[in-house]
Amino acid sequence: YLPYYIALRQQLMTRTVKAEVIDADPLAGIKFVEAVRPPENVTVPVNAQAFGIELDTDTRWPEAMSCRLNIIDQESHDEAMTLIKSLKAPLLLGVAAHRLPDRGVQRLVKELVDSANEKPWLILLSKPSVSVTSSRELAWFRLAETCGIPAEHVITR
């Protein structure tokens, strides 16, 4: 070998190096509390009173439920507010899942939620002929969160 290659080989040979962590994670030894997941089988209470919000006539409720009042104008809104304030049962709000929630619907849902005696439920109803996209479902979940309805109280059909 030529002296240059011998010197180069010596430089490139691995050296024994003791590896160590220079910037250790300060939270490495701390155990975090696991988040408790809500139960999978959350169901609407049997005695829940259902109110619709600007629903079409084609919108179908699940078989065990019937809409007590569909809020479509100021008169039905006032009637619903009166009924909800006197309710002793849980409140169930039905909305059209294929529609995007606008500010007016958000304000209406917020007023109804604030008038209820306990945490209400929100059910996303769909028409048989219209499919619901995940982005619309997500918009309804955001509305529910904004209005104080827990995510486990939002039911998709």
Structure description:
The protein is α/β, with parallel strands linked by helices. It has a domain at 49-156. Helix content is 31%, strand content 15%. A five-stranded parallel beta sheet has the order 2-1-3-4-5, with helices on one face. α2 runs parallel beside α3 (103-115) and α3 packs across α4. It is elongated. The termini are far apart.
Question: Any descriptors?
Answer:
157 residues, alpha/beta, 5-stranded parallel sheet
> In total, how many beta strands?
5
Gyration radius (Cα, Å) is 29 Å
Strand order of the largest sheet: 2-1-3-4-5
How far apart, in Å, are the first and last alpha carbons? Answer: 79 Å
Mean pLDDT over all positions: 84
Structure class: alpha/beta
Element order, helices and strands?
HEEHEHEHE
pLDDT below 50 for ≥5 consecutive residues: which ranges?
none
Number of helices: 4
What percent of residues adopt helix (DSSP H or I)? 25-40%
Oligomeric form: single chain
Task: Estimate the global geometry from the Cα principal axes.
Answer: elongated
Major beta-sheet overview: 5 strands, parallel
* Strand residues, percent: 15-25%
Question: Can you give me a brief rundown of this structure?
Answer:
The protein is of the alpha/beta class.
Write the layout of secondary structure elements.
Blueprint: H1 3-12, E1 49-53, E2 67-71, H2 74-85, E3 91-96, H3 103-115, E4 121-125, H4 134-147, E5 154-156
Parallel strand pairs: 1-2, 1-3, 3-4, 4-5
Helix pairs in contact: 2-3, 3-4
